[in-house]
């Protein structure tokens, strides 16, 4: 399995963690620095 470095789109921090899924099943992530919740497209 490949590893992907994910960065926050707001603050560019690499301190992100998986934060569940949206209703369509896509993974959501949350930034530990600015607390933004986002998903990869």
TrEMBL record:
Coiled-coil regions listed in the entry: none
Domain InsA N-terminal zinc ribbon residues, every copy: 1-35
InterPro entries: InsA_N_dom_Znf, IS1_transposase_InsA
UniProt-listed GO biological process terms: DNA transposition
Record's protein name: Transposase
